[in-house]
Every structure is written in C-alpha cells, then in structure tokens.
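Troubleshooting: if your tokenizer reports a length mismatch, compare your output against this known-good record of 100 residues.
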Amino acid sequence: MNTYDTTTVEQLKARLDAGEKLHLIDVREDEEVAAGMIPGAKHIRLGTLPDRLSEIPKDEEVIFICRSGGRSGRACEYLSELGYGRTVNMVGGMLAWNEL
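Known-good structure output:
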C-alpha cells in the first residue's frame, strides 16, 4: 500500500499554470535533467536524498518527479517512512510531461 499521494501531469500543469507555488523535486540523474526539467523544480538525485533532507520541507506538500514515476515513487515512500507527511508522486514522470 502506498503511503503517499499521486498527481497526474495534467493536474500538476494546471496548478502551475494557475500560479501555485509548489515544491517540486526532480530525482533523476544529472544527465537526465540536462535534457530539461519542469520550471521551478529543484534537482536532488535519488541517491543523494539521505544527505539532503534539510532541503526538503517536512510539513508541506512536496511533489517528486523522475523519468517515468518509479524513482519518484521510491522517494515518496522513503520520505513517508521518515515522517514527511505530504509527499506526492507525479505519475508518468517526464515521459508523460513531455507529451503535454
């Protein structure tokens, strides 16, 4: 059972287009983000999450992004286990985002 929420790329784009200030974290590798990121996203590679927890708000909604939704789901699961209350996985990842 997932301990985190999910959002679609369409839902996220609508929120961004409406001007919402969101915490977006892209957990892909350096070479992947070189091809482009969602504007406003912060790049924290999945493998470096344990060392960069202080950069992630614990009591605010944080939306995690990767290539297809797998790694971002693992990030959400990991942070949920650490007590982060509002982690959200962007379903479909950048593959889906780039289809918008």
